[in-house]
Design a protein that fits this description.
The protein is α+β, with helices and mostly antiparallel strands and 614 residues long. It has 2 domains: 291 residues, Rossmann fold; 187 residues, Jelly Rolls (Sandwich). 16% of the residues lie in helices and 28% in strands. It has a 12-stranded mixed sheet, with helices on both faces. Strands 21, 22, 23, 24, 26, 27, 28, 29, 31, 32 and 33 form an 11-stranded mixed sheet that branches. It has a two-stranded antiparallel ribbon with strand order 1-2. The radius of gyration is 26 Å and the shape is globular. The relative contact order is 0.12.
């Protein structure tokens, strides 16, 4: 079955709006006509009354018929703009956030029952609608703000399709309307023209709300008035959100969730569960999501390829401010790292802020200090970004260091010329083992070859990651650990680590394979900090879209990326690699008892280390 969403003939109304530009370094006053903003210290100032703002609810016509009712879907938008756009000759740029979480979500969608036999599936409950509070901040500073409901959600028409072309085009229709390339209507059916805007658009949002800007930006020249995006903890490849290297992997904290669960949740109960072809009935579409996502093999397929936006990053014309949490295990770090790498490959104007938290922003008051002593907060950084790209304010933000990284431990935000930090070079640490029963080592000088093979038995469904990384100087029957010598100087990891593990599965033809990179204290210490991790299905050792059965007891080389990070291992600590099978919080949880044997002499971990040595 195929999702029946389809693109119908688009409607073009009016001409393309001409974007207003601001001469570099200009400071204007509210009384001037060109431009009607006040800039102080590189920031537009609040000179317009929010209390008097014009507010409208409109329905934007898309080129879609996702519910198959024969009519073009319309998506709901709420507009807020300065009163002067109505009463005076004032045109303003727009900050847009599109979300599937506005209202009408189904609060108890059952998860897939692939957990322990004695556990019940979870249900998907309400999710945060971040960042919010856009209009009260930006409208007084000379912006229009639009809060939109994505196709098939809340009061918008249609069916949600979770990350594919239809979802992207529904957001595009809003951007097109602002430039005169699409139509919108009020509640009485009267056509409404966006004659109050410059046409220039900046998008922002967190989580799913930040993913839609990524998707839309890949349309490139099709959305010439999309000038910038600020994706926060956002997805760039939906396969990598719900899968990894052929393995069904959960977003952190949502074991058993998948694309179909999310689709049903944002559709709402009526649309998701009522069969039939009537308007807004999405039962068939939700069933197609469930069938085509393939939870059986975990392989990449056409369904996921249509939701992988990384290959389309070459089309991006808008500038991008990436904001992410280094410890976000919901939208995991490779989502931002691979997106960033693609943006860099195609020389997209960009900046990145990596905070030390999880699934959210750094917080408006988080701050960093430039080499000249100037301090900026997170809120003023985003504000300056929009001012530069939407009003043309020459505030210097593009000449400043490209990367802001919050350091673990101190919590300070440091600036770097780029990310990965310049000077990061791959360093290979080989696994060593003198004893089949004792913990092994990590050594830059060890030659590949004979080491003692080491075995363990999977029991990860009953043990947490915290438990499995503990006590690195003691053997454990359910995992193997390899630890470096004590570091004589700090080791700054910046980039994407990878591992190659030669191993055999000794009593079955399928298994999870998991690796943790850990910061350990000195020998005898209880300090153990999970730095990053990664997973693989042993049957996808060649490609993530191809299952290749293994033979029981035969050793294979398994190579995969761990999730990206920027982390400093302190002097006096040790770098550790933990190898196990089932990661209780992320992978599927088979019954315990799978036996695996690792061959350390042919196994290694590669770390991008600033300076290239320990």
């Amino acid at each position: 079955m195929r999702i029946r969403s389809r693109v119908l003939a688009g409607v073009v109304a009016g001409g393309t709006a001409v974007a207003a530009t601001l001469p570099a370094g200009t400071t204007a006053t509210a009384q001037t006509d060109d431009p009607p903003i006040v800039v102080e210290d590189g920031l537009t100032q609040p000179i317009y009354s929010f209390a008097d703002a014009v507010e409208q609810r409109l329905w934007v016509e898309t080129p879609l018929d996702t519910d198959g009712d024969g009519a073009l879907d319309r998506v709901v938008i709420d507009v807020s703009r300065p009163a002067e756009t109505e009463t005076e000759d004032l045109d303003v740029p727009v900050i847009l956030e599109v979300s599937p979480y506005r209202s009408g979500t189904w609060g108890s969608v059952p998860y897939h029952d692939d957990l322990d036999p004695d556990e019940l599936p979870q249900t998907l409950g309400p999710r945060a609608n971040l960042p919010g509070a856009l209009d009260d901040y930006y409208v007084p500073r000379g912006y229009g703000v639009i809060i939109a409901q994505s196709v098939g959600t809340a009061q918008s028409d249609g069916c949600p399709t979770v990350g594919d072309e239809a979802e992207t085009l529904s957001a595009k229709a809003i951007v097109d309307w602002l430039a005169g390339r699409a139509r919108a209507f009020d509640a009485d059916g009267n056509e409404v023209v966006a004659d109050w805007t410059t046409g220039d658009v900046g998008m922002i949002g967190a989580s799913y709300n930040g993913t839609i800007p990524n998707q839309l930006a890949t349309l490139g020249r099709e959305v010439p008035n999309l000038k910038t995006i600020v994706p926060i903890v956002a997805i760039s490849d939906w396969y990598g959100y719900y899968r990894e290297n052929g393995l069904v992997v959960a977003p952190g904290g949502y074991q058993g969730e998948d694309a179909d669960v999310l689709g049903r949740y944002v559709a709402g109960q009526t649309r998701a569960t009522t069969p039939g072809d009537g308007a807004n009935q999405c039962y068939e579409e939700m069933t197609a999501l469930e069938e085509e996502q393939d939870r059986v093999t975990g392989d990449d397929n056409d369904f996921w390829k249509a939701r992988n936006h990384l290959p389309k990053a070459k089309n991006v014309q808008a500038s991008v401010l990436v904001v992410d949490g280094r410890n976000d295990w919901n939208v995991k770090p490779l989502q931002w790292a691979r997106w960033w790498d693609e943006l860099a490959r195609h020389d997209v104007p960009r900046k990145i802020w990596l905070h030390n938290g999880g699934h959210g922003t750094p917080g408006n008051n988080a701050s960093y200090t430039l080499p000249d002593g100037t301090t900026w907060t997170y809120q003023t950084t985003v504000h300056r970004w929009f001012d530069h790209w939407l009003w043309g304010v020459d505030n210097g933000i593009m000449s400043e260091p490209r990367a802001i990284v919050q350091r673990e431990g101190t919590g300070t935000n440091e600036t770097y010329a780029d990310w990965p930090v310049p000077g990061a070079k791959d360093l290979t640490l080989r696994l060593t083992a003198d004893d089949p029963e004792a913990p092994g080592g990590l050594d830059t000088k060890a030659a590949p070859g004979r080491q003692k093979a080491q075995s363990f038995v999977d029991n990860g469904r009953n043990r947490s990651a915290t438990d499995l990384i503990a006590a690195p100087d003691t053997a454990d029957p359910n995992r193997l650990v390899y630890v470096s010598d004590v570091l004589e100087q700090p080791a700054h990891l910046s980039g994407t680590p990878s591992v190659t593990i030669r191993a055999s599965v000794d009593n079955t033809t399928a298994a999870n394979l998991t690796a943790y990179l850990v910061d350990y204290g000195p020998p005898g210490s209880d300090e153990a900090t999970m730095v990053t991790r990664g997973w693989m299905d042993v049957q996808n050792r060649v490609k993530r879209d191809q299952t290749h059965p293994i033979k029981v007891g035969k050793a294979y080389d398994f190579t995969w990326d761990l999730h990206a990070d920027d982390y400093v291992f302190p002097a006096g600590h040790r770098i550790g690699l933990v190898v196990l099978s089932t990661d209780r919080d992320f992978t599927l949880r088979p019954l315990p008892g799978t036996e695996l044997t690792v061959h350390p002499g042919h196994s290694r971990v590669t770390l991008p280390i600033v300076g290239g040595r320990l």
